[in-house]
Amino acid sequence: MEIALLLYDGLAPLDAVGPYEVMRNVPGWTVRTVAKERGPVRDESDTLGLVADRALAEVTAPDLVLVPGGAGNRPLLRDEELLEWLRDVDRATKWTTSVCTGSLLLGAAGLLQGRRATTNWIVLDALREYGAEPVGGRFVEDGKIVTAAGVTAGIDMALHLVARELGPEVAQAVQLGIEYDPDPPFDSGSPEKAAPEIVELVRSVATPA
Length: 209
Prior knowledge:
Helix 4 (153-166) crosses helix 5. The chain is α/β, with parallel strands linked by helices. Helix content is 30%, strand content 20%. The strands form 3 sheets. A 7-stranded mixed β-sheet has the order 5-2-1-6-7-11-10, with helices on both faces. A two-stranded antiparallel sheet has the order 3-4. The protein has a two-stranded parallel sheet with strand order 8-9. The protein has a single domain (2-205), classed as Class I glutamine amidotransferase (GATase) domain (Rossmann fold).
């Protein structure tokens, strides 16, 4: 399985690194980082750097493409070079996936038309602009398109994909290997669980993608 992990300036790092940590631990799976140009990119707070080993033109037929979200994807929603690359690789992929607002890039490329999809809860309704049916939950599988909700949901989605490809035992082994055993100190990780005042606080400071 060859995975193309899209990088760009302004991405949310855990959107990319969370699924990467799962997928790199699967025997026979190779994760290749790709961006418009080879070289470093910076995260959305401009404090962390990641490196793309390949340019878009060098990755043409991955088995799986993964698109992370982040504040930097807003200008990319109108970047025809990137959107055309997504359309092209989608023709060959077994799985086309996203984390958080990465699904908006899939939508802008026309890949979510008529499909169920999810994204960060703050911008969930924006998926309608791309002909998608917004759905809650940690991740949504519709055909070969799998979209994950905000940030940490990418880890859950990646484990789901391992299970789909290699069975639940392999996925559970990877989960144990990375000791992914969430036990947060607060049960406020979704708008349905968080107190109303916490939800409003997050809405007030959030930057829509």
